[in-house]
Structures are given as C-alpha cells and as structure tokens.
Amino acid sequence: MTNLFDSDSLTNLTEYSVSELSGSIKRTMETAFDRVRVRGEISGYRGPHSSGHAYFSLKDDRSRIDAVIWKGTFSRLKFRPEEGMEVIATGKVTTFPGSSKYQIVIETLEPAGAGALMALIEERKRRLGEEGLFDPARKRRLPFMPKLIGVVTSPTGAVIRDILHRIADRFPVHVLLWPVKVQGEGSGQEVANAIAGFNALEPGGVMPRPDVLIVARGGGSLEDLWSFNDEAVVRAAAASAIPLISAVGHETDWTLIDYAADIRAPTPTGAAEMAVPVKAELDAQLAALSARLRGATSRQMDHRRQSLRSLMRAMPSLDQLLALPRRRFDEIAVNLGRGLEMNTLNKRRAFERISARVAPAMDQLLVHPKRRFHEVASHLGRGLELNTLNKRHSFERMAAQLRPDLVSSRLAERRQRLEDRWSRAARSTERMLERLKAPLLRADATFVSLPARLKAQTERLRERINSLTRHADTAVRHQLARGRAELTAQDRMLLSLSYENVLKRGYAIIRDEDEKILGAASAISAGAGLTIQFQDGRIGALATSGDGSTGSRKRPSKPAAAPEQVEPKPKQGTLF
To answer: Which helix (H) or strand (E) holds 233?
Structure first.
C-alpha cells in the first residue's frame, strides 16, 4: 500500500505560489460564472462609499454573498439600492485575492417583481404621508388666468407638443419649458431641481416666474415612471410655492408626485385644460356681462328720469303759484281805493254838516276865525289827500314786493337747484359707469396682445389647410388613376368576353328574318331565309331542311347553287 505522504509521491504535484493559486481560482470563477442572475435581499447597505463604489451583501434564508457595484455602474442604475429590498442582480462572480473571498460584481439591478416595487412605494407613501407632505390643507388653488405656465418635461417627446397645442387652442399664453430627463438614472433629481429652479425665480425679474407649473410625462410601465416616485421629487413638489399640476402617465397611472401636487391631471392634455380657461367662453361671458351692465345702466337712467318727471309734475306751475297772491292783491287794491274815497267823502260830508250848522253864527262872530277855519279845512283836505297819497305809495311798495319777476326769479332758483341735482345725479352715474368699466378695460388690455398670436395661429392653420389641400389633390389624382386602371381592366375584360372576338376565331351567328339569333337547328324550318354573320361581314342563306333531326343527312352536291337562285346577297349587304 502506497503512502500518500511519501516524499516520492509529493514531488509529482505542481507547485504554485499563493498569487498564482489565487489568480487561477479567480480565472476559474470568472470563466464558470461569467454572467449570472442572483435573487436576494440587500443587507448591510450603507450608501455609496467615498470612492463612489457601493459594497453590501445579498442574502436569502440560508446563505449570503458579497456584492459590489462600481462607481460607473452605480450612476446608471434605474433604482437605488435600499436596505432590506429584494432585488434581482445581474453580473459576474469574481474573487478578491487579498482576503480569499468571492463576490458578485453587479452590472444591473432591478426589484424582484412589481410586488416589491409596490411594497416599496407603499412604504415610502406611508412615511412621507406621516410627515404631512400629502395633507390636503397644504394644497393651493390654481390661478384662474395665468400669464405664464412653466412645464417640466422632456423637450423631444410628444407631451410638450400636446400641451402647447391644447393651450394654443383654449387660451394662448406664454409657456416656459425646463427640459429634463423623464426616465433613467438621474431623471428624478433633474425633475426636483427643475421644480426648485422655477420657485427660485424672482417675480418681475429678467426671467419671469411662472404662475403655475406642469410636471408631465407620457405613459409607461411602473419602472418607466419610477423617477416620479423618487423622494426628492415628492419633497420638491410639496415645497413648491407655485401651484403645481401633476400629469404623469395615463389616467390609470399613479405616482407619489400625484399625492404631493396641488392637483392631479389624468393626462398631459388634461393638465393643459386645467391650467387655462377657454377664451371663447370668456368672450361670451364678458359680452353677457357687458350687455347686462348696459341694460342695468339704461334701466337706472330711465328710473331716475321717471322720478325727475314725477317730481316736476308734483310741483305747481307759475300761474298756480301766482294765482292766490294776484287775487288778494287785486281785492286789496280795489278795497283800498274805495275805502279811501269813502273815508274822504264821509269826512267831507261831516265837515259840511258842521259848517252848515255853525256857519250863520260864526259868520258874524268869527269872520276871521272862519277864514282861518277855511284855511284849516283846506289844509285838512290837502292833508287827507297827502295821507291817501302816502297810503297809496305804501300799497304800491307792498305790491312791488309781490311782482311776477320776483316770483319768476324764485322759480328760476328752484329750477337751478333741480338742474344741479340732476347734473350731480348724472355725474354720479357716470362715475359709477367708469368704476364698472375699469375691470372691462383691464380685461380688454389683457386681450390686446392676442391678435398677433391669433394671426400666427391663423397662418399655421392656413399652412395646414394648404397641406391638406395638396394631400387631397394627390389623393384625388391617385383615386382617378386607380379608377382609370380599373376601367381599363374592365374594358379589356369586356373585349375578351365580346362575341366579336369569338367570331374572329371562325365562329358565326345565325339569325332569322326577324334578326333573332337562332341557337338550335330545330328552330329552323325548311326554306327559311337566314342571315349568317362572320367576323368580316354578313351573308344571306336559305335553309334546305328544317326538321332538326340528327340522323344521316346528305349534303347537297352543289350547295353553292342555292345562293345563285335566291340571290340574297345584294339585298343583305354587309354591316362593316
């Protein structure tokens, strides 16, 4: 029996150095496991190293294997590794000679199925919801008529074209695009930076600040939309001071940014419809409000005018105002004149009676006093006349105070007051109209810049119509060509089926005297006149028998003699 540890047997083994043996093991491992897929749970992940590489382990319920992701590969990953996340890693197995360990160098990393992704989304949604990022009280209302809309999306996709087309159709406004990647490594951080960049713009600065933001992307799988589940994107959307509309994917697609945004749109086109109103509807509403304002103003003016007319009808006229004072004046003037005359007459009669009684005695006793008395009486009469004259002057002064021109002046003053009140009411109404017109003027100023954009849109539509017209002309030409080709084919078919082509092959058509085509021998009677049509013309013939039998029939020895006796040829002639 040979001893395995005998010195002779040991000398037959190849001797390796430690480095050679480690290198051989490394090459064997890399050759045998050049590319493998490993499913396991991430363990010991602490983020990328200062060098940019990531070191952790993959484990299951029984084993574990070290894993490494180099810096260049780590920057291209769609998903960031997380502790406890079940993943499927693709790479190659290699060894680390410095510690006699083997490890897998990961080239691609993906979650282990949609269930794992949904579990990760739910966990992240729960954690961010506890922080209050999805609180409805934090959401803001969208501006009714924004002047500038900021869009965060890819500049080369169909999403931005759909948004611009929809905004141009509804209400043309300025759109400011912040181009970002919407899929792949680093796309989430770019979207978060774009939202923060829009919010960092100063109102009224060189670069205007948008009134509303739209974060948009087309539809895709859960992996394609993963960037919008990034925690940085959700926090940026929740911290945005500008109202934000989330329009990621189709109506059935939900991402975490939808919960943090102020409003979620089912599609990017729907986001454009939410951002701006319909200009045609605003024009119709403005026209209706203007009509209502004009109607209300007209009714108010009519009401004021009717009230003024009512007040004017309630005031008495000039004749009515002067009627009673004029009547009193006339009565007083008449009574005063008669009273003065009666008073003077009574005093004169009394004086005459007294004079008559004392005149005889006094004539003698009082010659001189009588003369004096006459002087006094004359003075008394003049005094009475002067008194009457003074009272008449006083009456005329009182009457002067009641003359019509004073009453007219007072009426003029009252009328002037009414006119002043009317003018103040008119000015008040004009000021009210000016206040009501101010919003309309501001709205009109907003639409001043629209004609240029509408003209550009009209030019684009005209070009599109011209293009469609050219396409229609081309389609019509192609249709005519196809119709012409079909007509030619049908014409060839008719020619191939025409009996004239059959005649060219040596056949003939037999007709009776009524030009009826005869298709059977039984239809021909003996002695009947016939017309035989060949390819190049017609000839006349006479039937020699007509029983239609198919037995032995002798041919006439000279069949050409019959035509010489009948001589129908000059009668029939040829049709060609």
So the answer is: helix 231-239
Over residues 349-375, the pLDDT tens digits come to: 887 777 777 666 555 555 565 566 667
**One-letter identity of residue 453:** R
What are the boundaries of each domain within the chain? 11-112, 134-277, 318-402, 503-546+558-572
- Is 173 a residue whose pLDDT tops 60? yes
pLDDT of residue 449: 62
Query: What separation in angstroms does the CA of 546 have from each of 132, 508, 521, 539, 554?
Result: 113, 19, 7, 19, 13
List Cβ neighbours of 171 (8 Å cut-off, separation of 6 or more). Answer: 145, 276, 277, 278, 279, 282
**Domain 11-112 of CATH type 2.40.50.140:** yes
Question: What is the separation of C-alpha 311 from the centre of its chain, rounded to a whole number of angstroms?
Answer: 52
DSSP 123-182: HHHHHHHHTTTT-GGG--PPPSS-SEEEEEE-SSSHHHHHHHHHHHHH---EEEEEE---
pLDDT, residue 149, reads: 93
Query: d(Cα 508, Cα 506) in Å, to the nearest integer?
Result: 7
Q: What value does the mean pLDDT take over residues 260-280?
A: 89
The CA-based dihedral angle spanning residues 278, 279, 282, 287, taken in that order and rounded to the nearest 10 degrees:
-140
Gap between the Cα atoms of 384 and 388, Å rounded: 6
Q: Is the pLDDT of residue 280 over 90?
A: no
CATH assignment of 134-277, among 3.90.1180.10, 3.30.450.20, 3.30.70.120, 3.40.50.261: 3.40.50.261
pLDDT by residue (tens digit) across 387-404? Answer: 777 767 776 676 666 556
